[in-house]
Specification:
about 270 residues, 8-stranded mixed β-sheet, single chain, Rossmann fold, alpha/beta
Length: about 270
């Protein structure tokens, strides 16, 4: 019986074409174990965060970097909104496009490079390419178009495990079965952009809400605290560095802290 069981196990490993490391990873998910706890018990979706920040803003102007098919963008209630994504607009986006809802089918770098000269935005949502340097570049470009009391929201700043937090160059090699078990969740290494801001910008207030794979809130102002990493050190970091100190690296706050932040902005 033991021999038969071992044979079946070998066949299974061969069939799904993964090594023992990935097999153990699968078992880990099946048993619902995790090295780092998923932070969705007190769940607050990024869409809700964006809308609440917009509702308390003056002009209610909104920019979204990384629209994809438009599920989030279409549902945001704003006086004026602009979406940017390399793909052509989905049918959903086409239905809502008008003079107050503009869509630019181009990479974010091209959008900013061409010199957007429209209104400044009260809330800017960044959910583009999930790679450290691209995310950082998007954030810094957004500041050129942010209203004086505006806020930038960055999604996917708290990966829940090693695979979810892999940068694009590594994630593309992950077995499709692993991705499926993770429900296609992928944050990339966007979190490094947050560590970068908290290390090398002393004029920004940055914190991350512990919900929906980590939603960073960025605004101009005095930081609560600063990290002391150089860019070289940040580039060399991996998931283990983050997992060892989520709170310190991301200035992690409970989802409820959004209420405190909004009240402070009203003063």
């Amino acid at each position: 019986m033991l021999v038969k069981a071992c044979k079946k196990a070998r066949i299974f490993l061969y069939y799904i074409k993964i090594n023992v490391k990935w097999f153990l990873y699968i078992m880990w998910h099946i048993l619902k174990k995790s090295i780092c706890t998923r932070s969705n018990k007190n769940y607050l979706r990024h869409k809700t965060i964006i809308q609440r920040l917009l509702d308390t803003s003056l002009s209610k102007n909104y920019l979204e970097i990384g629209v994809s098919t438009g599920g989030n963008f279409a549902g945001i209630n704003a006086k004026y909104k602009v979406g940017v994504d390399p793909i052509q607009p989905s049918e959903l986006i086409k239905k809502i496009m008008d003079n107050n809802c503009i869509y630019h089918a181009m990479p974010s770098d091209d959008f900013f490079a061409k010199g957007y000269s429209g209104t400044n935005f009260d809330v800017i949502y960044v959910d583009g390419y999930h790679e450290y340097k691209q995310a950082y570049r998007d954030i810094m470009n957004c500041f050129e178009h942010l209203a004086p009391n505006g806020v930038i929201v960055v999604h996917d700043c708290k990966p829940t495990d090693l695979v979810v937090g892999l940068p694009p160059r590594l994630y593309k090699h992950i077995d499709p079965l692993i991705k499926m078990l993770n429900r296609e969740a992928w944050t990339g290494d966007v979190w490094k952009a947050i560590v970068h801001l908290r290390s090398l910008h002393n004029d920004l207030r940055v914190f991350t809400l512990d919900c929906d794979f980590g939603c960073a809130i960025i605004s101009k102002g005095e930081p609560e605290s600063l990290l002391s990493f150089s860019q070289t050190e940040i580039e060399a970091m991996d998931f283990d560095d983050l997992c060892g100190d989520y709170v310190g690296m991301l200035n992690l706050k409970p989802a409820e802290y959004l209420d405190t932040f909004i009240m402070e902005k009203r003063k």
